[in-house]
């Protein structure tokens, strides 16, 4: 897409500015990956649970009400409703915990369902999982969905039928359960008939993990199942009635699980596809955007403020995506006046310090940020700008102008610096209108 687009700019930022400079709302609560903010440990660690697992399970349970036949249910944040959270199929406090984190991040640009999707996606990517395609545009449900989340005591036939109703084949069911259960475990507090009270003062929920690396993504859910070392409470639980993972994993003669165990890459790529399908399962009629890819050069927080005597202050920063630190790099912003003309003075060098670095995908991709030397520049008028980036390595400087579109802004109607908040609860908002606009 072409910048500016307020909705997609916000969504792109939520999706790609995960950590570091201008980092989004999720990564700090996933660092480290065994961080859990609702446990007994004041350091939010080591309770056996994790925010990451809660967010992933919440996204699945929100989606699992989908009915491909009539188009109802799906990822629509209906899990926020008290009634839905308190059904037996949604046992545990992970859903409430998740909503406490996420509710205030929803806005007119990103629904709570999009935020839940982004939280689950960030948890998977941040904690060792594969990159997942993200589309925006989910719509929040206005009431609870019909029940339908699978439960451990259900038969394998009923699980196959249940996943078919959600839109997944038997093979995809095996995959999605394995992909989800590479994180977290079962707690005595929520499932006392499956997990005994461990009596561990550091683990008040008595969590029994699905695999030995339950705070990070890997294929141990499959390898430990096949080599017989698994302690997964839904496989080796003392009550066979609730061993649903076992019944699901063996249901195709272990073909799917063997393929996962043999190849970590195959497991990761299958999970990337299935997680994306899960997160894109929405009620019929909801139209999702194209996959949101990162802009290679992205202005952020650009704002014009009218000062006085016809002068404007321009503030903002720019992000260079997927670049390494390079002290030799120089970045310049070049702008055109409102009539399209440009003089040689219409150029500003941008500065960068070592802390102006962001990252995504658990640090696998980094970005570098640049800003105006005094955080702003002063100009008379502006209609658009572009960037000249010189890596300082002898190669030709490159022009970044969105394939000729330029980065378009309007200076006809802007905030005025005479706006003020004279006392608590009182504000005066002044708006400056260009004389040219008035004459039109
Ligand atoms: C037949 C299907 C499934 C059944 C019967 C099932 C059952 C369970 C149960 C009983 C728990 C323990 C929850 C707790 O103690 O709080 C759990 C945890 C979890 N499930 Fe599933 N699950 C299924 C499918 C899935 C799928 C498809 C995903 C995601 C793709 C998923 C993700 C998770 C996660 C991340 C946890 C860990 C939560 C935590 O540690 O707090 N599950 N599941």
Automatic annotation (TrEMBL):
Identification of the protein by name: Peroxidase
InterPro entries xref list: Ccp1-like, Haem_peroxidase, Haem_peroxidase_sf, Peroxidase_I
Keywords associated with the record: Heme, Iron, Metal-binding, Oxidoreductase, Peroxidase, Signal
EC numbers for this chain: 1.11.1.-
GO MF terms held by the record: heme binding; metal ion binding; peroxidase activity
A biological process from GO: cellular response to oxidative stress
Protein family according to the UniProt entry: Belongs to the peroxidase family. Cytochrome c peroxidase subfamily.
Biological role stated in the UniProt entry: Destroys radicals which are normally produced within the cells and which are toxic to biological systems.
TM segment ranges: none
Broad enzyme group: oxidoreductase
Source lineage: Eukaryota, Fungi, Dikarya, Basidiomycota, Agaricomycotina
Pfam family, one: peroxidase
Domain of life where this protein originates: Eukaryota
Plant heme peroxidase family profile domain location: 36-319
